[in-house]
Write a structure and sequence with these properties.
The protein is an alpha/beta fold. The chain has helices at 4-10, 13-19, 60-67, 82-91, 95-98, 114-120, 132-135, 162-174, 195-200, 210-222, 228-255, 286-289, 315-322, 403-418, 432-444, and strands at residues 36-41, 70-72, 75-76, 125-129, 147-150, 179-184, 260-264, 270-271, 278-279, 293-296, 304-306, 310-311, 349-353, 363-367, 371-376, 381-386. Helix 8 packs parallel to helix 11.
Length: 449
């Protein structure tokens, strides 16, 4: 059998796109058992898909998924951090409701999640996740899964990590789980796509290490203005990762032709849009908050585009509804199939981010479909953006005081007062060596300066 590494090194771009990213493995035999597959693409910008209007990024499989299903183009995340965002996806609850507001926090056993609800009804769940640092078993997101496969850390920086993730997903599919969660990490920094995909965008490898990433991030933000070619090379590497993930998704979808698919992301990614920054954790700008959301399969309207704003907290109630179940009371999201938001019916999104202290300050935001107010409490600073007139968020209107702005500020303060975090704490390392290893891993992801 051809090895995954050999496939990645030898395949031409067209061949890799045509074959997906199976790494030489055949999809399992399809069965008639009902299945729902949740695919989360870590750090995936909502605007980097052909079906979202991108003229340059190639995503034929995602575009096909959108054509045969429903696309919610206004989807957003409540927090641009992997651990708490995935907790919201699985629990249907805001971070300050389930208690996780930062990476490396543990989900409380009392919080209901998709697999725990399904398991109580005798249904089987499996998962494969691609980052032990931010989605490891010690963080509690494995609760309810009969199988919880983690791709080893040494594969994370290897070009084409998604091959290992895809192979693990195919193996889990052969066991015919009722619910399968597949998490891909490839689009996360430091953007190391397999060379064939890089060639599609004019950026052949090799791409360097996490340490190279840290140095580049510091230089981009604090040094002289980088050359335009450097920025273009970084954004091209990111686009190549997106196209590679598109191929991986296509492989999983083809392996389960009878399954209902729901695809989203934990957060987006800033690509030098603001403050000369590549990343997502220190900002609440739209590139970090907006995410793709697609569904296709039984009970999902084909060829439908919904532009009304929705949130990733709607994922869990929607998936449970696919199994004919009502969401428990702790799931504050809505079923997007049976209770879709009407025009003008989108509730405001309360968003926040809590980067590590040495890298950034906590931020809180209230976002409607037309406006956004952002509060940085430690600096006593407010920012206000008109998302219709200024979708790129280049003009802060906070100095132009208005009754509407004061109302948004008041609503945000009221929400923070009424829903404080419930006391979750970061996982403590058991030794200095383990703490150093965790910080090195977070550093390689760009979370530590």
């Amino acid at each position: 059998m051809t090895s995954a590494r050999a496939v990645l090194l030898a395949a031409l771009p067209a061949a890799l796109l045509a074959a997906g990213c199976t790494g030489g493995k055949e999809p399992p035999v399809a069965t008639d058992a009902p299945q729902v597959i949740l695919i989360t693409l870590d750090t995936f910008r909502a605007d980097h898909m052909g079906c979202a209007g991108s003229p340059t990024v190639r995503t034929p499989r995602l575009d096909q998924l959108a054509r045969r299903g429903t696309q919610w183009s206004g989807a957003v995340t409540p927090i641009p951090l992997t651990t708490p965002s995935h907790a919201s996806i699985l629990s249907g609850a805001h971070p300050r409701d389930h208690g996780l507001v930062a990476n490396r926090m543990r989900l409380r056993p009392s919080v209901a999640t998709i697999p725990s609800v399904l398991g109580a009804r005798g249904l089987n769940s499996a998962a494969v996740v691609s980052s032990p640092i931010v989605l490891g078993r010690e963080l509690g997101l494995d609760r309810g899964f009969a199988k919880y496969r983690i791709i080893p850390e040494q594969y994370r920086l290897a070009p084409g990590q998604g091959v290992w993730t895809t192979n693990a997903a195919l193996e889990l599919l052969s066991g015919n789980p009722d619910f399968l969660w597949v998490h891909y990490f490839d689009a996360h920094l430091p953007y190391t796509p397999p060379a064939p995909m890089g060639l599609l965008y004019g950026v052949p490898g090799p791409y360097g290490s996490g340490e190279d990433l840290h140095e580049a991030q510091t230089r981009f933000r604090e040094g002289p203005e980088p050359a335009r070619e450097e920025v273009q090379a970084m954004t091209a590497r990111y686009a190549a990762e997106v196209t590679f993930l598109d191929a991986c998704v296509g492989t999983v979808v083809r392996a389960a032709p009878g399954a209902t698919i729901l695809l989203t992301a934990d957060h987006g990614e800033g690509l030098f849009d603001h403050d000369r920054y590549f990343g997502h954790d220190i900002h609440l700008y739209e590139p970090s908050l907006r995410v793709p959301l697609l569904a296709a399969g039984a009970g999902v309207d084909a060829g439908r585009l919904v532009q009304t704003g929705v949130a990733t907290t709607d994922v869990a109630p929607t998936i449970l509804a696919m199994f004919g179940m009502d969401a428990p009371s702790g799931m504050t999201g809505r079923d997007l199939l049976r209770d879709p938001p009407g025009e003008g019916d989108a509730p405001p999104l309360f968003a926040e981010t809590h980067p590590l202290p040495e890298k950034g300050r906590p931020l809180y935001a209230l976002r409607t479909e037309k406006h956004k107010v952002v509060w940085e409490p430690r600096a006593g600073r407010w920012r206000y953006y008109d998302l219709v007139a200024d979708p790129a968020e280049q003009t802060d209107l906070s100095e132009e005081r208005s009754q509407y702005l004061e109302m948004l500020e008041s609503d945000l303060r009221r929400d923070l007062t009424s829903r404080p975090p419930l006391g979750a704490r970061p996982i403590r390392a058991e030794s200095a060596e383990e703490e150093a290893n965790v910080r090195d891993a977070l550093r390689s992801l760009g979370y530590v300066n």
